[in-house]
Amino acid sequence: MHASKGDRLVQHGRVVGQHDQVTEVVEVMGTDGNPPYRVRFQDGREAVMSPGPDCEVRHQEERKPQ
Fold first, then answer.
1. pTM (predicted TM-score)
2. What InterPro entries does the record tag this protein with (predicted)?
3. Residue 65 vs residues 36, 46, 61: alpha-carbon distances, Å
4. In sequence order, which residues have a C-beta less than 8 Å from that of residue 12 and are 6 or more positions away?
C-alpha cells in the first residue's frame, strides 16, 4: 500500500450497518509512501495508522473532476 499526503484512506465497515470510515493522510511516516501514516478523521482528530486489508487508498488525482 502506497499513499501520499492528501490521499484518503477508506476503511470499509466489517459488519452489516457499519459505515466506511474515511481519513485524510496528513503525513507519511514510512519510506517510499509505505505505512505508517498520520491521518486526520472527519471530526478533526488525528492518529497514526498502519492500514490493514480492509482499507483502500484513494489518491488525490483519482478524486479530481475531469
1. 0.81
2. DUF1918
3. 28, 27, 9
4. 20, 54, 55, 56
